[in-house]
Design brief:
With 236 residues, the protein is mostly beta strands. The chain folds into 2 domains: 103 residues, no CATH class; 79 residues. It has 2 helices and 13 strands. The strands form 3 sheets. Strands 4-5-6-7-8-10 form a 6-stranded mixed beta sheet. It has a 5-stranded antiparallel beta sheet with strand order 3-9-11-12-13, covered by helices on one side. Strand 7 and strand 8 form a beta hairpin. The protein starts with 5 loop residues before the first strand and ends in a 5-residue tail after the last strand.
Protein backbone atom coordinates (compact mmCIF):
# COMPACT_ATOMS: atom_id res chain seq x y z
CA UNK A 1 0.00 0.00 0.00
CA UNK A 2 1.36 3.42 -0.95
CA UNK A 3 1.56 6.01 1.83
CA UNK A 4 1.47 9.71 0.96
CA UNK A 5 3.62 12.00 3.12
CA UNK A 6 3.10 15.74 2.98
CA UNK A 7 5.41 18.52 4.11
CA UNK A 8 3.64 21.31 5.99
CA UNK A 9 4.51 24.93 6.62
CA UNK A 10 4.60 26.71 9.98
CA UNK A 11 0.88 27.44 9.84
CA UNK A 12 0.07 23.84 9.06
CA UNK A 13 -0.58 24.51 5.33
CA UNK A 14 0.33 21.64 3.02
CA UNK A 15 3.29 22.58 0.80
CA UNK A 16 3.34 19.51 -1.39
CA UNK A 17 4.21 15.84 -1.40
CA UNK A 18 7.61 14.58 -0.30
CA UNK A 19 9.60 12.45 -2.68
CA UNK A 20 9.94 8.83 -1.69
CA UNK A 21 13.07 8.23 0.34
CA UNK A 22 13.52 11.89 1.30
CA UNK A 23 14.31 12.68 4.91
CA UNK A 24 11.39 14.24 6.71
CA UNK A 25 11.92 16.19 9.93
CA UNK A 26 9.46 15.08 12.57
CA UNK A 27 8.26 17.42 15.29
CA UNK A 28 6.51 15.93 18.35
CA UNK A 29 4.36 18.20 20.46
CA UNK A 30 4.35 16.93 24.05
CA UNK A 31 1.88 17.89 26.72
CA UNK A 32 3.47 19.91 29.48
CA UNK A 33 4.39 17.67 32.38
CA UNK A 34 6.60 19.27 34.96
CA UNK A 35 7.42 17.62 38.27
CA UNK A 36 5.58 20.38 40.06
CA UNK A 37 2.21 19.42 38.54
CA UNK A 38 2.18 15.85 39.91
CA UNK A 39 0.04 15.25 42.97
CA UNK A 40 1.91 15.12 46.25
CA UNK A 41 0.11 11.85 46.92
CA UNK A 42 1.40 10.35 43.67
CA UNK A 43 4.96 10.98 44.78
CA UNK A 44 4.85 9.98 48.42
CA UNK A 45 3.54 7.51 50.97
CA UNK A 46 1.70 8.66 54.09
CA UNK A 47 3.91 9.04 57.14
CA UNK A 48 2.93 9.01 60.80
CA UNK A 49 0.35 11.80 61.13
CA UNK A 50 0.94 14.91 63.21
CA UNK A 51 -2.82 15.53 63.37
CA UNK A 52 -5.79 13.16 63.17
CA UNK A 53 -9.35 14.42 62.67
CA UNK A 54 -12.06 13.20 65.03
CA UNK A 55 -12.42 12.43 68.73
CA UNK A 56 -9.85 9.97 70.08
CA UNK A 57 -10.83 7.08 72.34
CA UNK A 58 -9.37 6.71 75.82
CA UNK A 59 -6.41 4.37 75.33
CA UNK A 60 -3.62 4.38 72.77
CA UNK A 61 -2.56 1.03 71.35
CA UNK A 62 1.07 1.66 70.34
CA UNK A 63 2.59 0.08 67.24
CA UNK A 64 4.83 -2.95 67.65
CA UNK A 65 8.46 -2.10 68.28
CA UNK A 66 9.37 -5.04 66.05
CA UNK A 67 7.74 -7.83 64.07
CA UNK A 68 7.69 -10.28 66.97
CA UNK A 69 3.91 -10.68 67.12
CA UNK A 70 2.79 -13.92 65.51
CA UNK A 71 0.01 -13.62 62.93
CA UNK A 72 -3.21 -15.60 63.57
CA UNK A 73 -2.68 -19.34 63.20
CA UNK A 74 1.08 -19.29 63.74
CA UNK A 75 1.42 -18.78 67.49
CA UNK A 76 -1.25 -21.14 68.84
CA UNK A 77 -0.78 -24.74 69.95
CA UNK A 78 -3.31 -27.42 68.94
CA UNK A 79 -3.97 -30.24 71.40
CA UNK A 80 -5.96 -33.18 69.96
CA UNK A 81 -6.52 -36.44 71.85
CA UNK A 82 -6.42 -39.53 69.57
CA UNK A 83 -10.16 -40.21 69.95
CA UNK A 84 -11.24 -36.74 68.74
CA UNK A 85 -13.82 -37.11 65.95
CA UNK A 86 -13.43 -35.56 62.51
CA UNK A 87 -15.84 -32.65 63.02
CA UNK A 88 -14.28 -31.57 66.30
CA UNK A 89 -10.79 -31.86 64.82
CA UNK A 90 -11.85 -29.49 62.06
CA UNK A 91 -13.34 -27.01 64.53
CA UNK A 92 -10.17 -27.04 66.62
CA UNK A 93 -8.04 -26.30 63.56
CA UNK A 94 -10.41 -23.56 62.39
CA UNK A 95 -10.21 -21.97 65.83
CA UNK A 96 -6.42 -22.18 65.87
CA UNK A 97 -6.31 -20.44 62.49
CA UNK A 98 -7.86 -17.36 64.15
CA UNK A 99 -5.61 -17.45 67.23
CA UNK A 100 -2.19 -15.84 67.58
CA UNK A 101 -1.30 -17.54 70.85
CA UNK A 102 -2.44 -19.97 73.51
CA UNK A 103 -3.60 -23.58 73.53
CA UNK A 104 -6.58 -24.77 71.49
CA UNK A 105 -8.24 -28.05 72.42
CA UNK A 106 -11.58 -29.81 71.93
CA UNK A 107 -14.56 -29.42 74.21
CA UNK A 108 -17.90 -31.19 73.83
CA UNK A 109 -20.88 -31.23 71.47
CA UNK A 110 -24.58 -31.44 72.28
CA UNK A 111 -27.70 -31.74 70.14
CA UNK A 112 -29.38 -28.44 69.32
CA UNK A 113 -32.45 -29.50 67.33
CA UNK A 114 -32.88 -29.73 63.57
CA UNK A 115 -33.68 -27.54 60.58
CA UNK A 116 -35.43 -29.50 57.83
CA UNK A 117 -33.13 -32.36 56.88
CA UNK A 118 -30.24 -30.86 58.85
CA UNK A 119 -29.30 -31.85 62.37
CA UNK A 120 -27.82 -29.10 64.52
CA UNK A 121 -25.22 -29.34 67.28
CA UNK A 122 -23.52 -26.83 69.55
CA UNK A 123 -19.84 -27.65 69.87
CA UNK A 124 -17.44 -25.93 72.25
CA UNK A 125 -13.74 -25.45 71.53
CA UNK A 126 -11.46 -24.28 74.35
CA UNK A 127 -9.06 -21.49 73.36
CA UNK A 128 -6.61 -20.27 76.00
CA UNK A 129 -9.02 -21.56 78.64
CA UNK A 130 -11.98 -19.66 77.15
CA UNK A 131 -15.04 -21.16 75.44
CA UNK A 132 -15.72 -20.63 71.74
CA UNK A 133 -19.10 -22.04 70.69
CA UNK A 134 -19.72 -23.30 67.17
CA UNK A 135 -23.08 -24.26 65.67
CA UNK A 136 -22.67 -27.25 63.37
CA UNK A 137 -25.21 -28.08 60.64
CA UNK A 138 -25.01 -31.66 59.31
CA UNK A 139 -26.82 -33.25 56.38
CA UNK A 140 -26.85 -36.99 55.67
CA UNK A 141 -25.89 -37.94 52.11
CA UNK A 142 -26.65 -41.65 52.56
CA UNK A 143 -24.30 -44.62 52.53
CA UNK A 144 -22.81 -43.45 55.81
CA UNK A 145 -21.73 -40.10 54.35
CA UNK A 146 -22.65 -36.64 55.56
CA UNK A 147 -21.65 -33.04 54.97
CA UNK A 148 -21.54 -30.24 57.48
CA UNK A 149 -21.00 -26.54 57.87
CA UNK A 150 -20.16 -24.62 61.02
CA UNK A 151 -20.24 -21.03 62.24
CA UNK A 152 -19.21 -19.43 65.53
CA UNK A 153 -22.19 -18.20 67.54
CA UNK A 154 -20.61 -17.00 70.79
CA UNK A 155 -17.30 -16.81 72.57
CA UNK A 156 -14.84 -14.79 74.61
CA UNK A 157 -12.17 -12.47 73.24
CA UNK A 158 -9.10 -11.32 75.11
CA UNK A 159 -8.24 -7.64 75.31
CA UNK A 160 -4.82 -8.34 73.79
CA UNK A 161 -6.43 -9.96 70.73
CA UNK A 162 -8.71 -6.95 70.28
CA UNK A 163 -5.85 -4.47 70.58
CA UNK A 164 -3.80 -6.41 68.04
CA UNK A 165 -6.71 -6.48 65.57
CA UNK A 166 -7.13 -2.71 65.89
CA UNK A 167 -3.39 -2.18 65.45
CA UNK A 168 -3.43 -4.18 62.22
CA UNK A 169 -6.08 -1.86 60.74
CA UNK A 170 -4.17 1.39 61.19
CA UNK A 171 -2.67 2.90 58.03
CA UNK A 172 -0.03 4.79 60.01
CA UNK A 173 0.48 5.60 63.65
CA UNK A 174 -1.26 4.00 66.64
CA UNK A 175 -4.76 2.67 67.05
CA UNK A 176 -6.91 3.56 70.06
CA UNK A 177 -9.54 1.64 72.02
CA UNK A 178 -11.87 1.97 74.97
CA UNK A 179 -10.26 0.56 78.09
CA UNK A 180 -11.22 -3.10 77.86
CA UNK A 181 -11.51 -5.70 80.61
CA UNK A 182 -9.11 -8.64 80.32
CA UNK A 183 -11.78 -10.59 78.45
CA UNK A 184 -14.83 -9.55 76.45
CA UNK A 185 -17.74 -11.99 76.23
CA UNK A 186 -19.70 -11.92 72.95
CA UNK A 187 -23.03 -13.78 73.18
CA UNK A 188 -24.06 -13.18 69.58
CA UNK A 189 -21.25 -13.26 67.01
CA UNK A 190 -21.42 -10.41 64.53
CA UNK A 191 -23.42 -8.15 66.85
CA UNK A 192 -21.60 -5.14 68.35
CA UNK A 193 -20.48 -5.07 71.95
CA UNK A 194 -20.38 -1.76 73.84
CA UNK A 195 -16.63 -1.43 73.30
CA UNK A 196 -15.06 0.50 70.43
CA UNK A 197 -11.65 0.73 68.84
CA UNK A 198 -10.40 3.17 66.23
CA UNK A 199 -7.52 3.37 63.81
CA UNK A 200 -6.06 6.00 61.55
CA UNK A 201 -7.21 6.09 57.96
CA UNK A 202 -5.27 8.05 55.34
CA UNK A 203 -6.80 9.74 52.30
CA UNK A 204 -5.17 11.94 49.69
CA UNK A 205 -6.34 15.54 49.39
CA UNK A 206 -4.33 16.70 46.39
CA UNK A 207 -5.75 20.23 46.28
CA UNK A 208 -4.63 20.69 49.88
CA UNK A 209 -1.20 19.41 49.03
CA UNK A 210 -0.97 16.12 50.87
CA UNK A 211 -2.42 13.46 53.12
CA UNK A 212 -5.34 13.75 55.51
CA UNK A 213 -5.82 11.43 58.48
CA UNK A 214 -8.98 10.69 60.42
CA UNK A 215 -10.12 8.25 63.08
CA UNK A 216 -12.22 5.36 61.83
CA UNK A 217 -14.27 3.66 64.55
CA UNK A 218 -15.73 0.19 64.95
CA UNK A 219 -17.50 -1.73 67.71
CA UNK A 220 -15.74 -4.87 68.89
CA UNK A 221 -17.40 -8.18 68.02
CA UNK A 222 -16.66 -11.81 67.27
CA UNK A 223 -16.50 -12.97 63.66
CA UNK A 224 -18.28 -16.08 62.39
CA UNK A 225 -14.90 -17.79 62.14
CA UNK A 226 -13.85 -16.99 65.71
CA UNK A 227 -11.59 -13.98 65.23
CA UNK A 228 -11.90 -10.35 66.29
CA UNK A 229 -14.06 -8.18 64.07
CA UNK A 230 -15.32 -4.59 64.13
CA UNK A 231 -18.78 -3.48 63.02
CA UNK A 232 -20.75 -0.25 62.77
CA UNK A 233 -19.25 2.68 64.54
CA UNK A 234 -18.94 6.32 63.62
CA UNK A 235 -16.70 6.78 60.58
CA UNK A 236 -17.13 10.53 60.44
Amino acid sequence: MAVAVWRTGAAGRALGPVAAGAAVPVVLLLAACSPGTASVCDRSEPTAPSRVEGAPLAMEVPPHADDSAAPPGEGSKVVLPPDTDEVMRDLVHRTAAQSASGEVRPGTCEADGSIGAQTVERCTVIRSGLDLVWRVYSTSLGDGLSQYDAVVVSGTLTADAVYEAARQRADKGPARCDRLPKTVRVEDAGKPTRYQCQWTRASCVSDAGGWRFRWENGYVTLSGSGGVDFVGGDDE
